[in-house]
């Protein structure tokens, strides 16, 4: 089921963009041009009250995507809500709620600082400490002449490399690809982007009363 794939891909860290640590230049190799592009995008997103992404999530093996599902992602500061098919994930600023409608199960956990959330913007922060960064020129992605940036882990973390494709003119992410050491691939291609919307005040709140028939497990 796609939900099982997703929950395996979305290993969460509640490290907000605004809380990114300083770069350790001695431990990393970060291309200056790539750094400026990523920092410009980060500053753009941080300047917004909230952001919304509609995207397609693809997964597969040997670099080939074999399954694609639509997804949506809301983020405001550190809080976020992500949904793909029948799987939903909410971070309310304190706890992470993984909601699986197929299994009628909710798992609740504190954020794990050593993990990484695979989202439309997570690598804008994790690159600062965990990856070597190179600028690889331009590549046409969905009609956008995007800047192509490659991230390679400084330390082994199960990921072989990550490709980021960026619309530098709009300071927005277009697509990201995560390639694992076990030859699996996960891809997010952004289809629509909105900012500074009037969101429901309970957008990032987990309402236990809505899941009375679910098994709720607190880790």
Automatic annotation (TrEMBL):
SUPFAM superfamilies from the UniProt entry: Prokaryotic lipoproteins and lipoprotein localization factors
Keywords from the UniProt entry:
Lipoprotein, Plasmid, Signal
The UniProt entry, under Gene3D superfamilies, shows: Lipoprotein localisation LolA/LolB/LppX
Q: Which domain of life is it from?
A: Bacteria
Name any one Pfam family assigned in the record: LolA
Q: What is this protein called?
A: Outer membrane lipoprotein carrier protein LolA
């Amino acid at each position: 089921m796609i939900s099982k794939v997703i929950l395996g891909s979305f290993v969460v860290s509640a490290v907000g963009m605004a809380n990114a640590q300083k770069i350790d230049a001695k431990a990393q190799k970060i291309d200056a041009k790539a750094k400026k592009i990523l920092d410009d995008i980060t500053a753009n997103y941080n300047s917004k009250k909230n952001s919304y992404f509609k995207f397609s999530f693809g997964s597969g093996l040997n670099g080939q995507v074999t399954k694609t599902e639509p997804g949506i992602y809301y983020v405001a500061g550190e809080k976020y809500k992500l949904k793909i098919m029948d799987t939903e994930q909410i971070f309310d600023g304190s706890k992470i709620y993984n909601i699986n409608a197929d299994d009628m199960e909710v798992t609740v956990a504190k954020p794990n600082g050593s993990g990484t959330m695979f989202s439309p913007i997570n690598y804008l922060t994790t690159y600062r400490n965990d990856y070597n960064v190179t600028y690889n020129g331009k590549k046409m992605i969905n009609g956008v002449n995007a800047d192509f940036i490659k991230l390679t882990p400084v330390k082994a973390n199960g990921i072989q490399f990550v490709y980021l494709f960026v619309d530098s003119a709009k300071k927005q992410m277009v697509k990201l690809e995560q390639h694992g050491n076990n030859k699996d691939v996960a891809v997010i291609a952004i289809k629509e982007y909105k900012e500074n919307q009037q969101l429901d005040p309970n957008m990032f709140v987990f309402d236990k009363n809505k899941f009375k028939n679910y098994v709720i497990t607190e880790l």
